[in-house]
Amino acid sequence: MKIRRCSVLYIESREALAIDWSALFAGTSTLAASTEWIALVPHLDREIGIDATELTVLGAISQTVWSERDACEQRLDAPAIARLLAKGLLIGDDAEHAAVRERDEVLRAAHWRPMAALVHTFSRWTDVRSETGMEAPTFQELLDTYGEPPPPTLELGAPGSGVKLPAPASGLLDETMRKRYTGRNFDLQATLPLAVAARLLQRTFGAQQVRRIGDSATILKKTSPSGGGLHPVEAFVLVQRIAGLTPGLYHYHPIEHELRPLRAMDAPEAAATALQMVADQQWLADAPMQVVLVGRAERTFWKYRNHHKAYRALALDAGHLSQTFYLLAAEAGMPAFITAAINDVEIEQMLGLDHLRHAVIAVCGCGPASGARDMAELRYGETGTI
Ligand SMILES: Cc1cc2nc3c(=O)[nH]c(=O)nc-3n(C[C@H](O)[C@H](O)[C@H](O)COP(=O)(O)O)c2cc1C
Description:
CATH topology of the largest domain: NADH Oxidase
CATH class of the largest domain: Alpha Beta
Bound molecules: flavin mononucleotide
Organism: Duganella aceris
Oligomer: single chain
Number of domains: 2
Low-confidence stretches: none
Structural class: alpha+beta
Strand content: 15-25%
Number of strands: 14
InterPro entries: Bacteriocin_Proc_Enz, Nitroreductase, Nitroreductase-like, SagB-rel_DH_2, SagB-type_dehydrogenase
Number of helices: 14
Protein name: Peptide maturation dehydrogenase
CATH architecture of the largest domain: 3-Layer(aba) Sandwich
Mean pLDDT: 96
CATH superfamily of the largest domain: NADH Oxidase
Strand order of the largest sheet: 11-10-9-12-14-13
Shape: globular
Largest sheet: 6 strands, antiparallel
């Protein structure tokens, strides 16, 4: 049997602090610190404790070249090798280790920058709800807890040395940009007209032009810019109240301009799904349409292989699409929202996505405002606290 190390492995020295009761009674230091090694591996999607012997073994086995297990056991600690195979940190080439090997191969094939794979994997949320720690403090509560934030701008250069610029001329986008705001008081009775949803989806996520390159490759022109022109971010739509559509999950096809049904739901299930997606932010879940922005890492990393900036570009792509979505909603007289405070893992499960290939980045949504101001909003021209 041959073995090699998993492709992406980071080791964290983690410290746990505890009260040292014997020291407390003896009148000396009361804080006891203990450290342990934690292996962070995206292919297993969990943290794994290891000991010092296992750490040494991991550092002595190639992640690229397959080595004979017998030969490794002669030069390294054999029981530690067995433990690391059982933990999935060493990969075996036999049938017994096929499941872990398959996950490691998915990771290798996706061309992630290792640090990015780590950040993405371990920044995902699962089952975050109001009871499990989801907090939404107001600005005033933050001020009360943390004191003054850093000032709103940088103040560089000598006072009075700034070059005053002319007042901006009016432009076509002004009105729409000023109408844009994040809605947190959606009208639960309102249904989004299908034509409005269709325009929002097509003008934000749809292909404005399809170009062939070579024999079979295709690139899309959209209304937002995209790193490498690859447009890796796809839209999955949770319909709650859109005229003529059954509630449930759909994939928006950007070339065909159609919603492809993934799972039909009744209205209560769609509402519960929305709430779970946005980690109990009821003020966002009330919107009649939610759109999950999913970055197809494999498409971006096809060009930007093992690239320092690729993951950043993926997130920026989603941000651009969100702003376009907001502006189109404002044009239609509606507020919109975006949130990254989402239960990524549950969203992956409901959409059948593998986080190593498809990165759930954010959830957007929009709909008519109710007119109430139960939750804070920051609308242009208004005053007051948020
Ligand atoms: C990346 C990002 C994440 C956000 N996350 C949340 C969120 O979790 N919940 C929420 O209510 N608003 C969220 N917002 C909306 C901001 O709070 C909002 O944009 C900000 O308060 C300014 O208000 P405005 O959009 O109306 O100008 C998010 C915005 C961005 C850009």
